[in-house]
UniProtKB/TrEMBL annotation:
UniProt key word Transmembrane: yes
Protein name: Catecholate siderophore receptor Fiu
TonB-dependent receptor plug domain ranges (all copies): 69-169
InterPro entries, sorted: Beta-barrel_TonB (IPR000531), Beta-barrel_TonB_sf (IPR036942), Plug_dom (IPR012910), Plug_dom_sf (IPR037066), TonB-dep_rcpt-like (IPR039426), TonB_box_CS (IPR010916), TonB_sidphr_rcpt (IPR010105)
SUPFAM superfamilies (UniProt xref): Porins
Keywords: Cell outer membrane, Ion transport, Iron, Iron transport, Membrane, Receptor, Signal, TonB box, Transmembrane, Transmembrane beta strand, Transport
Chief site of localization: membrane
Start and end residues of each TonB-dependent receptor-like beta-barrel domain: 259-730
Any single GO BP term: siderophore transport
Membrane topology, record value: Multi-pass membrane protein
Sequence motif TonB box, location on chain: 44-50
PROSITE patterns the record matches: TONB_DEPENDENT_REC_1, TONB_DEPENDENT_REC_3
């Protein structure tokens, strides 16, 4: 394998660049501050406050993070609503392109394909550590941003913040809330592949302290680069607020989103770098070339439907000027069912009607089905307060949480799609729909959590912080199988039970306690800059962070209830600088995460917990304003993710963790050229990635690195209307956005597309 695939960054001394950037900007910051903050007129001192940057929110909206972002001893990226608007980012996956090294790089395992926001971060699947307003979001569908105020990405273990979570960190989407002003913002977009989208945001005051807000969204589009792929979603989000500006505030929110999409199982990796035919009999594939990236290998029966409903009530009471108590109750339900047809790899899956003509060869397909209902009911109480003990200041956030999560996976009858031509697929095939067979799987997890965080202002420049969280959980799980079948995993029918009947095969429960904690220290070198250290422990129970017993494991299963929790330990050393009159935040951090108690399969088929992983590297970021008219957000990371102990190595035999680019860069910049014209441009680089290991033969063991550029042109017609044109993948780069574990399938990156949007304000 070529060791120089990452040449664009292999010799780039990013720490030197960052230091030089800080030094170079400091004189500019001093000059701007001297020129703009104080002006004298006769004997009157006029202080002109700088407008906060719309690209760099100063604080997290989650009360668990009580300190400003610049003084938080963690790597945090806050993606504001303005960034989303300027980029035309309409879903969470697109929003996360502003965070280096975070993305949907994994396309599924074997015949299964990922759907929705399948996010990898720092070498770990983080899809189950996505939160909305600090509450776990149970959806596996695509999350639209029409009702999102900002997206907060916290890297490193978040167990002390949210309980069980991925060791890589967490993603928190903050919902829009009513305000004490009245206005309407609406947008209408058209774009490539018959893309149509409309949104409306109505905020209306009702008296002096109450307001109503309504956000609506509708979108319908075809995929520009893929045949037959269509997406359609609609959303409504009404909300009420009472007591705004007073000591007692009540918020009532509801969110409904429905989606009707065509799932995409990807295309064969034939012809990609690293591919070779799986057998001598299929050697012609070595020279047959890539398949058309627009090819669709599904059927007319394929679909992906989901419905999400969420109701939230939050009450806030200011006990005094420094103490606030908040109580939040949320009920949410997500129902999703889909039929996704994807090709199956391997030489035995290829049929050759004419050995001399590859155009006649066919590949078998697998029908992936899902029919699931997820529910969550939670009540959270949080108290924030500030006080002094002697000369030491305290900034405290503490609370309790009660949560019940339930999941029902409905068993459905198997479907068998016919083979598909490799180079000329025909999707005009109907294989029927989903029919339930009673072989359901049911899980329920009840969790009680209690936590406390404190930041101690020891001196004017020195702070200590720490936090601890205890979670007690109880999980019940049962599942049924259809008896009387044949092949691997077949279950015999008990006496008197008819063949094809569902019978309970797993009925188990488990309980446990998880203790997560963090500690840090921060020292202000100057008024504008600091250095910090942080150490955190995060745990999640066997079976992952969705359910403590995700699959009801018994016997030799990797999800056995007698296993210890997976444990992640993260160390971070960083510095943050607010420059240019505190309008631009520059950050740099060194990090290391060690993950223990990873489950590994032994040679005899049993499982043990001896696996260890490590992710280490550094990250640089910038967010805010360089000048009043010039805004930026971006970052660069170099990360080395490897298996320290265990068998889970990459397909190329190295110890590298898959789906984790060693180098990743992202930058978006916008400049207000005149009062009416704005221009924006961005670029991102994703380095070469390893894929997971299995028994696949001849498939690529890696994906190549790539650059993608985007651009925007905005024009203000008048005070009520502005237009913007966004162009994505400006240079029409051909790249692999994600690859499946076996390397048989991949999702090509979207080609050059455009979106024209009219934004209206009243």
């Amino acid at each position: 394998m070529d060791k120089n695939r990452n040449v664009p960054f292999s010799s780039f001394n990013s720490l030197t660049f960052f230091t030089g950037l800080c030094i170079g900007l400091s004189p500019v910051a001093t000059a701007l501050a001297a020129d703009s903050t104080e002006k004298k007129s006769d004997d009157t001192l006029v202080v002109e406050a700088q407008q906060p940057s719309l690209y760099a929110p100063a604080k997290s909206a989650d009360p668990k993070f009580s300190r400003p972002v610049a003084d938080t001893t963690r790597t945090i990226t806050v993606i504001s609503d303005q960034v989303l608007k300027d980029q035309g980012a309409t879903n969470l996956t697109d929003a996360l392109k502003n965070v280096p090294g975070v993305g949907a790089f994994f396309a599924g395992e074997n015949g299964n394909s990922t759907t929705g926001d399948s996010v990898y971060m720092r070498g770990v699947d983080t899809s189950n550590s996505i939160y909305v307003d600090g509450i776990r979001d149970i959806s596996s569908a695509t999350r639209d941003t029409f009702n999102t105020e900002q997206v907060e990405v916290i890297k490193g273990p978040s167990g002390s913040d949210y309980g069980r979570s991925a060791p890589s960190g967490s993603i928190n989407m903050i919902s829009k809330q009513p305000r004490l002003d009245s206005g309407i913002d609406a947008s209408a977009s058209v774009g490539s592949a018959y893309m149509r989208r409309g949104t409306i945001d109505i905020n209306q005051t009702m008296g002096e302290t109450s307001a109503f807000r309504l956000n609506l969204m509708g979108e319908k589009t075809h995929d520009e680069g893929r045949d037959n792929i269509q997406n359609e979603r609609y959303g409504v989000a009404p909300s009420l607020a009472f007591g705004l500006g007073t000591e007692n505030r009540l918020y009532l929110n509801y969110l409904h989103v429905t989606q009707h999409n065509t799932p995409d199982g990807g295309i064969p990796t034939i012809g990609l770098p690293g591919y070779s035919a799986p057998s001598a009999g299929t050697a012609a594939l070595n020279s047959s070339g890539k398949v058309d990236t627009s090819n669709y290998y599904g059927t007319d029966s394929d679909y992906d439907d989901s419905t999400a409903d969420t109701a939230t009530m939050r009450f806030e009471h200011d006990i005094n000027d420094t103490t606030t108590v908040r109580n939040t109750t949320r009920w949410s339900r997500v129902k999703q069912d889909y039929l996704l047809t994807a090709i199956m790899g391997g030489a035995t899956n290829i049929t050759q009607p004419d050995r001399n003509s590859v155009d006649t060869w066919t590949w078998s397909r697998n029908a992936n089905t899902k029919d699931v209902s997820n529910k969550i009911l939670t009540n959270q109480t949080n108290l924030t307060t500030k006080f002094y003990t002697g000369s030491v200041g305290h900034d405290i956030s503490t609370g309790v949480e009660f949560t019940r999560e339930t999941q029902t996976n409905y068993g459905v009858n198997a479907l068998t799609p016919p083979p598909v031509n490799i180079y000329h697929p025909n999707s005009n095939v109907s294989i029927g729909g989903l029919t339930r067979n009673g072989a359901n799987a049911n899980g329920q997890t009840d969790t009680f959590g209690i936590y406390a965080f404190d930041t101690l202002q020891v001196t004017r420049d020195f702070e200590l912080n720490g936090g601890i969280r205890l979670d007690t959980y109880h999980t019940e799980y049962d599942s049924a199988s259809i008896c009387g079948g044949t092949g691997r995993g077949a279950v015999a029918c008990p006496t008197g039970v008819a063949k094809g009947s569902p019978i309970t095969t797993v009925d188990t429960a488990t309980s446990g306690n998880l203790v997560n904690w963090k500690a840090g220290a921060l020292y202000h070198l100057t008024e504008h800059g600091n250095v910090y250290v942080n150490y955190a422990i995060s745990q999640q129970p066997p079976g992952g962070n969705n359910f403590a017993l995700a699959q009801g494991g018994t016997g030799s299963s990797a999800n056995r209830t007698d296993f210890k929790p997976q444990k992640a330990k993260t160390s971070e050393l960083g510095t943050k600088w607010e420059v240019l009159d505190k309008r631009l935040l520059l950050s740099a951090a060194l990090f290391r995460t060690d993950i223990e108690n990873e489950v590994e399969q032994n040679d005899d088929g049993t499982y043990s917990q001896y696996g260890k992983k490590r992710v280490e590297g550094y990250e640089l970021s910038a967010a805010g304003n360089i000048t009043a008219n010039w805004q930026v957000i971006g970052g660069y990371t170099q990360q080395r993710a490897s298996v320290q102990t265990g068998n889970n190595v990459a397909q190329d035999g190295t110890s590298s963790l898959p789906y984790t680019p060693e180098h990743a860069f992202t930058l978006w910049s916008q400049y207000q050229a005149t009062d009416d014209i704005s221009v924006g441009a961005g670029a991102r680089y994703i380095g070469s990635m390893h894929r997971g290991s299995d028994g696949a033969v001849g498939t690529p063991s890696f994906t190549e690195g790539y650059w993608v550029a985007d651009a925007k042109l905005g024009y203000r017609v008048n005070r009520n209307l502005d237009m913007q044109l966004n162009v994505y993948n400006l240079f029409d780069e051909d790249y692999v956005s994600s690859i499946n574990k076996s390397g048989y399938r991949y999702h090509p990156g979207e080609p050059r597309t455009f979106m024209l949007t009219a934004n209206m304000h009243f």
